[in-house]
Design brief:
This protein is α/β, with parallel strands linked by helices. The chain is 46% helix and 21% strand. The chain has 8 helices and 7 strands. The two termini are 21 Å apart.
C-alpha cells in the first residue's frame, strides 16, 4: 500500500523524514501548546478526554504514549486511569523537556511511575509485550514508515492490549470541507509563522493531514500490522478521528 504521508516532508527531500520531523518539533516546541489550543479552539482537550474514556474499561497498568510531545495525553492518562507506569517517547528532546517539566509541576501524576525519553517510534527500545496500552495523539502522520510503526507498537503490546490513535483528519461534509480548507491552508500557516517563527511547520501540518490514511484505509494498515477488532470514531465533523485496535 502506498502511503502518501510518508513522502510529505516538513522541509526538503534531501534528508529522512524522521530527521526533518525531529528538527521541526525541536523548533516549534515553545509554541506547540499555544498553537494546539488556537488551531482547534481548545477542542483538542475534548478529543483526548474522549480517547481516555474509551481506554478506561481496559484498565491498563503499563502505558506507552508514542509521539508524546509535551505530554498532554500522558498526564491526562495518569490523572484519569492511574496506571502503575507510563512511558512517553518522542523524537524531539525539546518537546520531551517540556513534558518532563509539566510532570514535575503537575498534581495529575497520581503517584504513577512516569518517565519521558527520546526514542524512535520505528525502533522502539522496549521488550516484546511490555505494555497493556499504546497511545498516539496527532503523531502517526509524521511517521516515516507508518506500517513499520504500527508493527513496532503491536510488538510491544501484551496480548489483548489496546492501541488508541488520535489523528487529525479531513472532514467529508460539503459545508464544512471548504471552510476547513480555507482555515488550514491560509489561517493556520500564517499564525504558525508568526508564533513559532518556523516558515514551513504549519504549512506541513495541513499537507500531512490530507495525505495520511483515513477511516477504513487506516484500519487496513492496522490489520496488516497484526491488529484485530479495529474501529474508528469520527469527531467534530470529521476533523479528528480516534482509531482503536487490539493485539
Amino acid at each position: 500500500m502506498e502511503i502518501k504521508a510518508e513522502s510529505v516532508n516538513p522541509y526538503d527531500d534531501s534528508r529522512s523524514k524522521t530527521e526533518q520531523v525531529r528538527e521541526m518539533f525541536d523548533s516549534i516546541a515553545p509554541a506547540y501548546d499555544f498553537m494546539n489550543r488556537m488551531m482547534t479552539f481548545g477542542i483538542d482537550k475534548l478529543w483526548r478526554a474522549k480517547a481516555v474514556r474509551l481506554i478506561r474499561k481496559n484498565a491498563p497498568e503499563r502505558v506507552l504514549d508514542v509521539a508524546t510531545g509535551t505530554g498532554d495525553l500522558a498526564l491526562l492518562l495518569c490523572r484519569e486511569l492511574s496506571p502503575k507506569s507510563l512511558t512517553g517517547i518522542d523524537l524531539s528532546e525539546n518537546m520531551i523537556e517540556i513534558a518532563r517539566k509539566k510532570a514535575s509541576q503537575s498534581s495529575w501524576t497520581n503517584g504513577v511511575d512516569i518517565k519521558f525519553r527520546t526514542a524512535d517510534c520505528l525502533d522502539l527500545p522496549f521488550d516484546t509485550c511490555s505494555f497493556d496500552c499504546v497511545t498516539v495523539a496527532y503523531g502517526v502522520r509524521n511517521f516515516e514508515r507508518l506500517l513499520q510503526g504500527y508493527r513496532e507498537m503491536h510488538r510491544v503490546l501484551s496480548d489483548n492490549g489496546v492501541l488508541c490513535v488520535i489523528e487529525l483528519s479531513t472532514p467529508t461534509s460539503s459545508f464544512i470541507k471548504p471552510l476547513y480548507r480555507l482555515y488550514t491552508k491560509y489561517v493556520i500557516p500564517m499564525v504558525g509563522r508568526l508564533v513559532s517563527h518556523d516558515v514551513r511547520a504549519y504549512s506541513y501540518l495541513p499537507e500531512s493531514i490530507a495525505a495520511v490514511p483515513q477511516g477504513d484505509s487506516m484500519l487496513e494498515l492496522m490489520r496488516q500490522a497484526g491488529f484485530r477488532e479495529t474501529r474508528f470514531i469520527p469527531l467534530t465533523f470529521g476533523t479528528c478521528t480516534i482509531y482503536l485496535a487490539k493485539k
